[in-house]
Structure prediction request, 160 residues.
Amino acid sequence: MRVDDLRILYDYDRWATIRILNRAVAVPPFEWSDSNRIDRRGLGGILVHALGVHERWRCAWQGIEEVAQRELEPLLTPEELRADWDIEWTALAAFFDGLLDDDLDGPVDDLPVWQTMTHVINHGTQHRSEAAVLLTRLGLSPGDLDLQVFLEERAHQPVG
Prediction:
């Protein structure tokens, strides 16, 4: 695994998450805040958890301790969640800017960094799929979230 490979996966993660968040703003407040829809969480709880995990792992890779657990705080609105994702994506971009291929084999939680980074992508996919099911039930499907769709869209974007 190389940094450039992980960067593609994280670009995909952002693209797919934006598709979910773009639909989430139309969710009625009761549906957003209701719990026990999938496991013990509802739509808002699922998406806040996904952000919280993303932040905690990035901080672990950077050696930052004492990261708040978002899931224990009051539930964000869809708009607040999107704003906080934008902050996380900026922090992640800064992390990637300093990341070298050799850094990926270093340990975090007794695993190589690259393995924990791929775990975060997989974890996000799980929770986006749960959110997509709930959004679709509300008539707000985010559409196709496949990696292949992202890669094809990316390949056909003008350069520059």
The mean pLDDT is 93.
